[in-house]
């Protein structure tokens, strides 16, 4: 969970970690009277496109009360984004949540939140709050989207993204900036990347499995932290997060230059795949191919599940990259998405 994982990271952002811990532990020293306490750091898991229910249950129904559901903004852990407020009879929705969120009200004690058609950015920390005169109570629940984290670098080279550039770059590849929890999970699955990248909370990290001098000296394996960085003045790579897709990625053999590759996909009623889409097909649909192919961002990549000698001799499974070759003269296949 977020909190535990944050505490594993030592270095330079203690004050920020403290803020998060304070946030989580707000009600820990108080027994809740009206709300059922979920198991510590309750977590709901779902995939993109699915519906999810975030459970919240009353112990007793107070005579007068209001229920407020909100989502915690990852950049400002103290600020809340209100989803809906109900007085037990009527529900008022806020902003974008109108079409997406509803109060389940399966029985008299049920104040669970239903979310439909989950999107990547729906993951995060939600708060169920009972407002009852002076005695407000709240419980928090984490919604995780099942997915895959991938590092992303600009076509202009290493460390070119401000925080906002990184956010945009991920969005353009059918992804969002990853959370710390998502990066941590991917690291346990074998992600190693010796370049620092932005996460969605404005911190910068990099995941290392095989410590070596160029990647943080003699520190043990782990997620290395630069802590929170300046969002417009400093530049790094990005860690993007994506999930399952409705369509899938397939390979069209070359030799093709970039324009010919785009055309080859179009002829098949498809388009050149986004980086998020090839990662999704690799992770969830078992896409494996020992041939470099063009993607829509102008990079050339190939997805490997079982590493083989004759396939570059790369030691780890993953979507490997040839970088951004010259579009007019380099010849590869094409990875198309349909
Ligand atoms: C999600 O909820 C909506 C609205 O309640 C429903 O129409 C849809 O079938 C549900 N989808 C899934 C995958 O259960």
Automatic annotation (TrEMBL):
Report what the protein is called: Hyaluronan and proteoglycan link protein 2
Cystine pairs annotated here are 194-215, 290-311
Where would I find the Link domain in this sequence? 148-242, 243-338
Segments forming domain Ig-like? 38-144
- Name any one Pfam family assigned in the record: V-set
Q: Which organism is it from?
A: Tachysurus vachellii (Darkbarbel catfish)
Q: Which GO terms describe its biological process?
A: cell adhesion; central nervous system development; glial cell differentiation; positive regulation of neuroblast proliferation; skeletal system development
Keyword match Transmembrane? no
Its cellular-component GO annotations read:
extracellular space; perineuronal net; synapse
Q: Quick one: signal sequence residues?
A: 1-19
Gene3D superfamilies from the entry? Immunoglobulins, Mannose-Binding Protein A, subunit A
Question: Which family does this protein fall into?
Answer: Belongs to the HAPLN family.
Annotated GO MF terms: hyaluronic acid binding
Query: What taxonomic classification does the UniProt entry list for its organism?
Result: Eukaryota, Metazoa, Chordata, Craniata, Vertebrata
């Amino acid at each position: 969970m977020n909190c535990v994982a944050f505490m594993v990271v030592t270095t330079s952002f203690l004050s920020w970690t403290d803020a998060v811990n304070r946030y989580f532990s707000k009600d820990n020293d108080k027994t809740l009277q009206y709300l059922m306490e979920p198991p510590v750091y309750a977590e709901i898991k779902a995939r993109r496109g699915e519906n999810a229910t975030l459970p919240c249950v009353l112990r007793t129904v107070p005579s007068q009360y209001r229920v407020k559901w909100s989502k915690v903004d990852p950049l400002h852990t103290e600020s809340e984004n209100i989803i809906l407020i109900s007085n037990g009879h009527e529900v008022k929705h806020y902003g974008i949540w109108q079409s997406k969120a509803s109060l389940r009200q399966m029985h008299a004690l049920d104040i669970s939140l239903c979310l439909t058609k989950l999107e990547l950015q729906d993951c995060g920390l939600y708060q169920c709050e009972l407002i009852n005169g002076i005695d407000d109570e709240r419980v928090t629940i984490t919604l995780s989207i099942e997915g895959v984290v991938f590092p992303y670098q600009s076509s202009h080279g290493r460390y070119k993204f401000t925080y906002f550039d990184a956010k945009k770059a991920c969005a353009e590849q059918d992804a969002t900036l990853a959370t710390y929890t998502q990066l941590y999970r991917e690291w346990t699955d074998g992600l190693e990347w010796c370049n620092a990248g932005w996460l969605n909370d404005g911190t910068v990290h990099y995941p290392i499995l095989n410590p070596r001098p160029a990647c943080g000296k003699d520190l043990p394996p782990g997620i290395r932290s630069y802590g929170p960085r300046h969002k417009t003045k400093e530049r790094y790579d990005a860690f993007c997060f994506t999930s399952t897709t409705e369509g899938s990625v397939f390979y069209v053999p070359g030799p093709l230059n970039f324009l010919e590759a785009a055309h080859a996909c179009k002829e098949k009623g498809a388009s050149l795949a986004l980086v998020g889409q090839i990662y999704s097909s690799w992770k969830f649909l078992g896409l494996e191919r020992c041939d470099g192919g063009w993607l829509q961002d102008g990079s050339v990549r190939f997805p490997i599940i079982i590493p083989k000698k004759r396939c570059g001799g790369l030691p780890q499974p993953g979507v490997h990259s040839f970088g951004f070759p010259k579009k007019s003269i380099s010849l590869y296949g094409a990875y198309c998405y349909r």
